[in-house]
Amino acid sequence: MQNILVTGGTGFIGSHTCAELLKSGYNVVIMDNLSNSKKAVCDRIEKITGKSVKFYEADICDYDATCQIFSENKIDAVIHFAGLKAVGESVQKPIEYYSNNITGTLVLLKVMREYNCKKIVFSSSATVYGMNNKAPYTEDMPTSATNPYGYTKVIIEQILRDICVSDETFGAVALRYFNPIGADKSGLIGENPNGIPNNLVPYIAQVAQGKLKELRVFGDDYDTPDGTGVRDYIHVSDLAAGHVCALKYSENNDGFEAVNLGTGNGSSVLEVVSAYEKACGKEIPKKITQRRAGDIDTSFANAEKAKKLFGWEAKLTLDDMCLDSWNFTKLNPNGIE
Ligand code: NAD
Ligand code: WQD
Questions:
Q1: pTM of the full structure
Q2: Which domains does the chain have, with CATH numbers?
Q3: DSSP assignment of 203-249, as one string?
Q4: How far is the CA of 59 from the centre of ligand 1 (A)?
């Protein structure tokens, strides 16, 4: 049975992917420094799957700790989620973002080389399409960024490309996620943000709970059907399944591939609000405010490459995403503690 190291495995997307890996017959070793998640997530993954995970509280920037994991386990492949991800915070703390995300990835890649581990699936982001491309985004479009967080994704993709050139037996898949939301059907794992959420659905969830007064809709004068921003929301469980498909693909293929994981459809802020209202049976109070700096009008994937390479496509609807988000929120009113 193959052993997969999942960095950032107690986080939002990592935890769902660990559950999917275990269900698909892989052994899972999680490495997380718990900077944005809780160890209790491991128990919940075990509860969902009936299988056990091995957990290391360790930082990917820590070379010795990373070596120890590789020496104690024969790691066949890595799925690399660990990273800081708040766009606004990255503008305030560029050194922390570059150092955690890029130095951490370099340490991980160096240790992988030392232990002859040659397969990696990396969490990239649709943010690499920057401001100058027009949706639907295809993987051959030029990449760019507008903030330090986005640059860490652009740079790490380039590092992976370069490693694949230097070693033709190395395989790297950079998965460009669109807007992951929702939660596992069980309601045991889900998104667990610290403080006031930045992202739309976690914010709406807290308005529905009564923790926040109202949603601020950032602009209704975009060039979109209802004037509000359009994004490609994807259920985190579909995304998790996409990682298992990418892993299987990388078992038989070397070289670098960047692949979008999205549904191929866009929804507006107001459409998301309506779907959430239906899911929770309450009205979500909202007011239109000015645009948020750095936002674009429309982002959605061309999802053909994932279908062609992996045979993967998203199946769950926006209604499913909102129902599962609300189910998780109700069952865990203060997140996972
Ligand atoms: P998350 O914060 O829930 O998970 C990331 C995990 O990594 C956390 O558990 C955190 O504790 C851990 N971590 C951070 N730095 C670490 C380090 N130096 N060493 C060990 N562990 C560390 O975030 P998520 O939403 O699950 O995102 C996972 C990945 O996907 C990130 O790389 C993120 O940039 C990327 N991504 C997320 C989204 C999104 O909207 N959620 C979209 C595109 C890409
Ligand atoms: C979605 C829509 C907002 C909050 C971000 C990152 C991206 C990726 C995913 C990591 C937009 C509107 C939001 C609110 C609102 N993450 N909105 N009121 O900006 O598409 O993507 O997360 O890689 O890199 O930038 O997601 O959920 O913040 O916003 O009106 O309180 O909701 O303007 O149109 P975004 P989001």
A1: 0.99
A2: 3-181+233-264+300-314 (3.40.50.720)
A3: HHHHHHHTSSS-EEEE-S-SSSTTSS-EE-EEEHHHHHHHHHHHHHH
A4: 12
